[in-house]
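Quick one:
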Amino acid sequence: MNQRILVINPNSTDAVTQGIDRAMACLRLPGGPEIECITLREGPPGIETQAHVESVVQPLFRLVTARDNDACAFVIACYSDPGLHAVREATRKPVFGIAESGILTAMTLGQRFGVISILSRSIARHIRYVGQMGVSDRMAGDRAIGLGVVELADESRTLGRMIEVGKTLRDSDGADVLVMGCAGMARYRDRLQDTVGIPVVEPTQAAVSMAIGRVRLGWER
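Output:
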């Protein structure tokens, strides 16, 4: 089997893919699978609405079908997990959504997780998904930083807002672990965790960590 995990950024912003790629550095181990990060060119600049989510499902399906013989696992690197179940029907290889993986990882690190979202309109979509997963009672809250995907490249502004929201989730909502609610936030995990003093889950790292385990253990669906 080809030992390559394909990480797909469903939006078309290369800066997001580059940030994801840098976040994979700690998971690229000697003898481990290759981790390739790619951009879905058909995607919008940022996936910020339900319409955006639904618009990338078929392009993702086609991409995974085309790369099925070239990878041992797939990761959909968008916190809305667009097309996750449809893509799982396209391949027998493991497919991971970063929201599902990030939330499951957070629940091993604390009792109540808080989500840092990009925009307030994302929150209802996230809460719906947490309900579908059946883990609403473990969610402390979901708060937005008020910045779109493309705006996340502004480091000082983004990190400042993430720290502010992270502290509110910790102090006001009772979160003892945080989940970053967008793959475009990847570059800020270490600095955020150092500042807020509780575990911070970068969900693409969480998903790829799970994928590595599946590949190394030889588990197929």
